[in-house]
Amino acid sequence: MSTSAGSVGAVTPQALCFDEPLALQSGASIAGYTLMIETYGTLNSDKSNAVLICHALNASHHVAGYYADQPKNIGWWDNMVGPGKPVDTKRFFVIGINNLGSCFGSTGPMHPNPATGKPYGADFPVVTVEDWVNAQARVADRLGIRQFAAVMGGSLGGMQALAWSILYPDRLQHCVVIASTPKLSAQNIAFNDVARQAILTDPDFHGGDFYAHGVVPRRGLRVARMIGHITYLSDDDMAEKFGRDLKAGDYQFGYGVDFEIESYLRYQGDKFSDYFDANTYLLITKALDYFDPARHTGGDLAAALAHTQASFLLASFTTDWRFSPERSREIVQALISNRRTVSYAEIDAPHGHDAFLLDDARYLNLVAAYFNRIDAGLQGGTA
């Protein structure tokens, strides 16, 4: 990475409003919705240097930089996107979009339903990864971007990038899929359902209409986040950070916090319940569960990817047991069978699934090298 790497600086989100109904995979549709976006860098004259960053479960359109009135609110992938960083905003025009149904400004369950004037709540339609991609394509249309230089994401964002290559094969040159999977395992679906049950059974949930009651199902959200956070970390990472360290130096012989790991998880749960919406959590975990591009090809992933045209970069992390390297290799093999151009790296990192957000030099240099190739292609070389 360049030694001149820096921040994109203060950024300002934009709200894009769409009146035309968006047909959803469930058979429902939604009209009059808003999508929040942020952009970084400059779109070139032929609009060929645009990069779409797709976000994961609890992230948003705020990919990089900070807000002038909230200088500590730094974008969730700020180490990846910016001047001199792997996705270099001196060369690329980067777009972050907050997905439909989220709770960071895009239309979601907490927003008024035009039909009733009250918050959608439980009436907000279930959305899928493919629905998000279709909505993102409308943003590209609005910005006049016919083809992305790359679509990139980690975890759930990687699913969206993969879906882009299938749904809009001629609208992206490169597909970058980090720490992701072609579908959730039964174990992953089980974790998601336990988390959802924690929310659904919270007395303050009120069937999803808790807004009208002036409450938040904090207990459910706390437990959901604690469950999720356990799966994002590796056993080695937990052992190194916390081990069996005691909060008060000795056993308390009660059911409060004894161990440092308990304190950490409760802190993460409390923080999450302050800013995340319970209905959004249900929606996004269900979208994770439903993603399975090979569902309509009899489980044949190669057949599902047969019409892709992009070149691909995939990366996985050895200690990521949530979206293990084996799942990335499935995608690689399916692409190779279709004679696609594929680069794959399996990075030995101790941090579990969260590694895709962290500062591992090998990982960041890998992405930087790949985007250097993309830029060379835009300048007339070979990408």
TrEMBL record:
Chain ranges of the AB hydrolase-1 domain: 49-358
What GO cellular-component annotations does this UniProt entry give?
cytoplasm
Q: Which residues form the active site?
A: 155 (nucleophile), 320, 353
Positions of the site: Important for acyl-CoA specificity? 322
Where does it live in the cell?
A: Cytoplasm
Name a single GO biological process.
Answer: homoserine metabolic process
Determine the domain of life of the protein's source.
Bacteria
- Please give the Gene Ontology molecular function terms for this protein: homoserine O-acetyltransferase activity; homoserine O-succinyltransferase activity
Q: Name one Pfam family in it.
A: Abhydrolase_1
Q: Does the keyword Phosphoprotein apply?
A: no
What keywords are annotated for this sequence in UniProt? Acyltransferase, Amino-acid biosynthesis, Cytoplasm, Methionine biosynthesis, Transferase
Question: Which sites bind substrate?
Answer: 225, 354
* Pathway the protein acts in: Amino-acid biosynthesis; L-methionine biosynthesis via de novo pathway; O-succinyl-L-homoserine from L-homoserine: step 1/1
Instruction: Answer yes or no on keyword DNA repair.
Output: no
Entry EC no(s)? 2.3.1.46
* Catalyzed chemical reaction(s): L-homoserine + succinyl-CoA = O-succinyl-L-homoserine + CoA
Task: Give the SUPFAM superfamilies listed for this entry.
Answer: alpha/beta-Hydrolases
Q: What class of enzyme is it?
A: transferase
HAMAP family for the chain: MetX_acyltransf
Query: How the protein assembles, per its UniProt entry?
Result: Homodimer.
As for what it does, the entry says: Transfers a succinyl group from succinyl-CoA to L-homoserine, forming succinyl-L-homoserine.
Q: What family is this protein classified in?
A: Belongs to the AB hydrolase superfamily. MetX family.
- Protein name, per record: Homoserine O-succinyltransferase
Organism of derivation: Undibacterium oligocarboniphilum
Gene from which the chain derives:
metXS
